[in-house]
Design brief:
The protein has helices spanning 18-21, 36-44, 46-52, 63-75, 101-107, 111-116, 130-147, 159-168, 197-206; strands at 7-13, 56-59, 82-84, 152-157, 174-176, 190-195. It is of the alpha/beta class and 208 residues long. A six-stranded mixed β-sheet has the order 3-2-4-1-6-5. α7 (130-147) runs antiparallel to α9. The chain is globular and about 50 Å long. The termini are far apart.
Length: 208
């Protein structure tokens, strides 16, 4: 095993599903697999991931993330350990899950603004608030950093988790752009985050 000088996290959004094409939010209640394009997207990033020299992979339990992780690991020259963490799952949209954008706009007229400023609260619909998602996802990230110090770590997760991360840490660079250029966070995007003591302190402050 190579000795690393620092801990680096690589956040990777899962490949495309049919619901992504239809712009229907899946959350945790619609647990779909990748479509053909999503499989191809995931296979396409393997050469880039090879160059990252990952030590381990983390994934949520949702099929679209699990399948993306399995494809990546199968295509690597040398498979690496895979760990699951339910805290890395997508947001729960409650009864808004599966509804078209028109219905979202009717039930939650300011949803785009709430998303932009990460102030959403889906609890009235039986889902999660931004604080709940932040607490669980950042606690997972902190545990990963603590338990796998000085490793290169791939985290295959979801739009909501990555969006929240980029909101609080906008300096995180995207090192690979997915195929859908219309999305700000496209399927199969890769973001690199080198961890420092200061960043660990910032994560802890967001968990208070």
């Amino acid at each position: 095993m190579k000795i690393r000088n620092e801990t680096t996290l690589y956040f990777i959004r899962h490949g495309q599903t049919q619901y992504n094409i239809k712009h229907i939010r899946q959350g945790i209640q619609i647990d779909d697999y990748l479509d053909t394009q999503g499989i191809l997207q995931t296979e396409k990033i393997v050469p880039t991931i090879e160059k990252l020299h990952l030590d381990i992979l983390f994934t949520s339990y949702l099929h679209r993330a699990e399948e993306s992780t399995a494809i990546i690991n199968t295509k690597l020259k040398e498979p690496i350990p895979i760990y699951h963490d339910f805290r890395l799952r997508e947001r729960d949209f409650g009864s808004l899950t599966g509804k078209p954008q028109e219905e979202w706009n009717r039930l939650l007229p300011n949803n785009k603004e709430l998303e932009q400023f990460q102030t959403y609260d889906y609890r009235p619909f039986g889902g999660e608030s931004v604080d709940q998602v932040r607490q669980r996802s950042f606690s997972a990230i902190l545990d990963i950093i603590t338990n796998h110090d000085h490793k290169n770590i791939g985290i295959i997760t979801h739009n909501g988790v990555i969006r929240l991360l980029l909101f609080h840490f906008p300096e995180i660079p995207r090192i690979y752009r997915g195929l859908d250029t219309e999305k700000d966070i496209a399927n199969a995007d890769i973001y690199e985050w080198a961890i420092t003591e200061g960043k660990i302190a910032n994560i802890k402050s967001l968990l208070r």
